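Protocol step 4 of 6: record predicted structures for both targets in the notebook before any analysis. Target 1:
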Amino acid sequence: MTQEELDALMSEGVNDMDDSSKNTDETAQDEVEETDEIENTEEVEELEEDDEKIPKGYSEETSHHWPLPATDENKMVHQLDDVTKESEEKASEIFDIIENISNELMEKEENVQKSIDVFNANIELFTTLSIKFPEVEAFKTSLEQNKEALESANSTIETLQASGDSIMSIMDIMQYQDIHRQKIERVINVMRALSKYMSTLFEGKIDDEKRVASAQHIVGDEHNDVASTDDIEALLAQFGN
């Protein structure tokens, strides 16, 4: 094989390697572009779904000019009903917990009272023994120990009784929760009555389906930026909900 043939063979090998590398790069680039396209499509779909939930022209800058959408999260009476229901449930749970704590304190108080009766009996016994046998130091030591235990038990009784009084005060304060619930329910009833009154006040003799379509532009209007039929229907549907 001549030198020229060897050079030609080497040149062909290098070209094949370049073509293979180029094809690989192009394939990778196509895959990246395809992935970006899918992600962009998903983002557009998500934005379109969000746009359907937001009134036309609504933005954070103009939010104070718009009423909130009539969703379950923004319906006033719906929200107040949830508040009264949840507050009543939570208050009932709190009362149950407080009642259990109160019962446990009363039980512990009875146990401590039994210990106090034992300490009093021991003190009486060791007092008599100390008088009859003054030379026995064990009687005096036991007498002092029982007196100290009696003082500690009496202090525990006072603490338990004070805790019981505090729990009773908490239960009295919690009664205001029921009063607050009744006030909210009264507000709800007034709001519902006003809503029914306004609905009755705006009733007409002609069905909306039989009415003439509203003119989008009337002679003398200073602007042509009027709401379309779709905008009006969407607004009516929103208030209807």
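Target 2:
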Amino acid sequence: MKIFSWNVNGIRAVEKKGLFKPFIEKYQPDVLCIQETKAQVDQVKDDFASLYPEYHQFWHQADKKGYSGTAIFTKLEPDKVIYGLPEKIKTKYNLADSYGDTTAEGRVLVVEFEHIYVATVYTPNAKDDLSRIPMRQEWDPAFLEYMEELRKNKPVVFCGDLNVAHTEDDLARPKPNVGKKGFTEEERAGVDTMLGANFVDTFRIFTQGNGHYTWWSHFAGARERNVGWRIDYVMVDGDLKDLVKRANIHAEVLGSDHCPVSIDIQV
């Protein structure tokens, strides 16, 4: 099974640029997890169903138009689709702040297959002034608790834009970014906790060192110079680690300020 994840930063924009279809045709993902769709279901559902009829398509929109949102395209029809966080987790954690209610932003979507769950997540950004770090300290454990709940039933793959570079190898310029958005101790600790809970960063199974990034600023030719950050991940339950045959970053795929990431897994 080829599982891809891509923060498209506006799926209608990528399609309008003529860059979504070539990506689909070249890579043929079995499951495509999408973040930051920036679309309401009625704006995309019919058009994308006709353009990509080989996929079952599930959309989780934000209440706010043109903001956030996730989707999953899958060739295999899932047994179940779950939208958002469970109520018991939403009530346990403080997931709303002055910026809004993260549980109303279409940030989590899960499909259940016979042998695994696949989840996509668009993690809230900490903001330049770090004013959303308190939210991250609620969101990260809430999302992880949900993944741990799911895997009591069967193994889990989760992927998406986690909005954090985990180690110094995950961004081109670590020293000047220590303590800044996306590279604070608090955000990095969230990934530490995921790994400590026996989820595996699949890219690091196969590839070590720096120079491998998934997001680049629009400024100063950052992408052309590969001055980027690795903030998009595919994580698997530790029980699935040996079934992951490859994990890739597809920096050649254009259309967004992020590029897709993927794994091939035998399930």
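Step 5 preliminary note on target 2. The first strand starts at residue 2 and ends at 7. The helical segments are 11-16, 20-27, 41-51, 87-92, 133-150, 174-177, 185-196, 203-206.
Proceed to step 6 after PI sign-off.
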